Amino acid sequence: MQGDLSRQATAWLVRLDDEPDNENLRVEFMDWLATSSAHFAAWEETSRVSHLMTVAGPLPRIGPDISARPVLSAWLRKVPSFKAVASFAMIACLAWVAVPYLALQFRSDVITGTGELRIVKLEDGSTVHLAPTTAIAFANGAKGRTLNLFQGEAWFDVARDETRPFKVIVGDSTVTVLGTAFSVRMTDTGTDVAVERGRVAVKTPAGAQSERIELIAGQSLSVSEGAAALQREIRPDRVASWREGVAIINDQPIGAVIDRIRPWYGGYIIARGPGLKDRRVSGIYNLRDPDQALEALTRVHRVSVSQVSPWLRIVTIR
């Protein structure tokens, strides 16, 4: 069922892009969108509504620097001929999209955009490198230092202070250090941690095989759906290679490579096919040029990339 809805949403995406001035088509789309919340969920997943949805002409992105109210007002002025119920449905849908962005903005101290890298100096003297589409908040207290990673990936060079441990909270996991350099990444199913130097302790969610795992330089850990697993050793100088705009992949599923590329791409990448999780690749991928990185994947047997529009790529792994 979900696959059918995803295909329908993709078809709408292409039709609306091909006929941006077709009002009847927009009304039909509104009726489809308002039919159920599952339709909107499929549309949101397919188009990253915040900067891809073009129901009544291009919509401004609803993000950290743009208020939702002007966006809604400007958009509504463009669609006076829509049925009241359709307009109401669209307002509800846009609110659904805007609220998570606004909530993330209110919770976060720093948020990076697509393809944006940023270096942040914290109050305690620690340094944080933020990957694209990353959000953090930092609290510097007398008994300890706590940084919340709400989404994305970050590399830390922590100022040593034995009296005030430094903790990174990401989802259900907590990484505790005194003085070290390491990276933390939030994934769809858990957390990835890799250590460049020093030592960290990772407290995993309840139900994981080990509640507290210590890592040293060159070691990495993946926590996924409550299970924690040590990964193969990594050269310390390759930890958080995204800081140099590259992804160094060693025997990883193609789906994992695409997940690395997505935050650098200004549009949307749909990945599908039976080999998404099972087909494994190795290589160095240029994150600063997402299309080039995707093209590199086509060198792997039976992988194709379709450029549906300037902002939509479909990767098929057969």
TrEMBL record:
The keyword Metal-binding does not apply. The chain crosses the membrane at residues 84-104. GO terms for molecular function: sigma factor antagonist activity. Residues 7-48 form the FecR N-terminal domain. The keyword Transmembrane helix applies. Keywords: Membrane, Transmembrane, Transmembrane helix. Residues 109-200 form the FecR protein domain. Pfam families: DUF4880, FecR. This is FecR family protein.
